[in-house]
Amino acid sequence: MELNPIFEVVRIKQEVRETSEPFSSYRIASPEDAQELAASFIADEDREVFLVMMLNTKNQVIGLHRAHVGSLNASIVHPRDVIKSAILNNAASIIVSHQHPSGDPINIVS
Prior knowledge:
This protein is an alpha+beta fold. The protein contains two helices and three strands, in the order αββαβ. It has helices spanning 31-42, 79-88; strands at 49-55, 61-69, 93-98. It has a three-stranded antiparallel beta sheet with strand order 2-1-3, with helices on both faces. A hairpin with a 5-residue loop joins strand 1 and strand 2 (61-69). InterPro entries: MPN, RadC_JAB, UPF0758. Pfam families: RadC.
């Protein structure tokens, strides 16, 4: 029995990026630790990048995912893109971050 293409299973491909410094042994113990790791991946980008860090139960980083690459001054991310990467990596928790390519830190809670 041949299945109609409409019923075929779609595979989700997850791209693994090799880095010069593996983050798998990196443990997040403070907001500064998370900021340092995020900055090493997205600080020099010319567009806003929304980064998801996936952590295990020991707060060790088990994955990093660029959920969205936006424009010069905006990055709109759908929650499903954040949740999908966390579920696929079996994450116990997540940390999200983004940067300002202009270098101007916008104070939202002023």
